[in-house]
Amino acid sequence: MNRQELNKKVGEIVKKLIAGKGVVAPLEVFLRLGAVSPEQVEEWRLGKVPYLERVLRGNLSQFNFILSLIRQKAREHELKPSHTVYMKWGKGPKRPLRFSKTGDPTMEQRYSTHYVITSSADRHDPLE
Known about the structure:
This protein has one domain. With about 130 residues, the protein is mostly helical. About 25% of the residues are buried. A 3-stranded antiparallel beta sheet has the order 1-3-2. Helix 1 (about 5-20) crosses helix 4 (about 60-75). The protein is globular. It has helices spanning about 5-20, 25-35, 40-45, 60-75, 105-110; strands spanning about 25, 80-85, 115.
């Protein structure tokens, strides 16, 4: 998928998430783009995968572009950023999960920031 197609697809996904859930999470966008399967996400959440980027289909440049698009679309819809901590599921000690190979705090923040509507009045039909 080229950048123009990604821009359109991410925009559609963001609108649907706002209308349906009222929140846009990068992980949900990657799932809906088909860049990662629910099974791979579950393995990562259980700590069987060291970092999410390991199982994402695509390359780092594409992931960065998608994260930038999400942030841009969130601003356009006047969504409020909300940092979310992802913790390991299952048995054993609970620990924060990593998204990126490097563990860079800026990248980790970009992956884990959800964007939420500020009131129910902001919800609208995604097909408008």
